[in-house]
Design brief:
Number of strands: 4
Largest sheet: 4 strands, antiparallel
Oligomer: single chain
Number of helices: 3
Strand order of the largest sheet: 2-3-1-4
Structural class: alpha+beta
Radius of gyration: 17 Å
Helix content: 40-55%
């Protein structure tokens, strides 16, 4: 399991995303807060960021807004879905070979 399990989901409009992400990176660097962008779907305004500590994720939410997500539940759900995804990839490979 990754150390970056404390996740925050924020909404960024396409027009403001570049500037807002620059401010986020600057603020986090200034406070020496390490984070990762976990999920950014093309065309989606939602971005998920992960932090090493709950208090850092909470500080981010206090400063930039967003919603705290339970990263442990997210990882557990992804692990639970992995066999289904593997089966779908296997089916896709088999149908490509026909």
């Amino acid at each position: 399991m990754s150390a970056f399990v404390h996740q925050v989901e924020i909404k960024l409009s396409e027009a403001a995303a570049t500037e807002r992400l620059r401010r986020i990176e600057s603020w986090c660097a200034g406070w020496e807060i390490r984070f990762h962008v976990v999920d950014r779907q093309p065309g989606s305004e939602h971005v998920r960021l992960a932090f090493e500590e709950h208090r850092l994720a909470r500080a981010f939410v206090c400063h930039f807004g967003g919603v705290l997500m339970d990263g442990c539940k997210v990882e557990a759900a992804m692990e639970k879905d992995a066999p289904d995804e593997d089966a779908l990839y296997r089916i896709a490979r088999e149908s490509d070979g026909e």
